[in-house]
Amino acid sequence: MRHYPVNSPQAAARIVALTVVADGDIAEAEIECLDRLAVHEQLGLTRHELLALLDTFCEDLLSSGQLNWADTCPVDERTLADLMGEIQDPALRLKVLRICVELAEVDAQVDDGESNVLIAAVEHWGLHHEMFRSSTRN
Prior knowledge:
single chain, mainly alpha, 68% helix, disordered C terminus, DjlA_N, TerB family tellurite resistance protein, TerB-like
């Protein structure tokens, strides 16, 4: 698996890509959601760069032998921790988590794999209180 600089657009986009593939399918609704939210712009990438990173991430998963479409997160715990560890900026963590939540909910159903990614982000980044505060503001 490639490594990206901490807090880089590529590191953030890779977590978004993980959320997209976590349910075992890259749905058209997810691609439309990426465009609607202008995720590439939010992360400091072009649309082409974001989609290329999604492809590259899938290639990395295939070459590492971690790709597993069994309704669970398609990476092991250590890799998941490494990916989450590349995002250390608190504001970027919140931005990425909010994007990932939108993507996971785009089909009106959060699958186990997507849920595992979201839970890992909240736990690794210590966002338990922030998520509670966000839900009480609505």
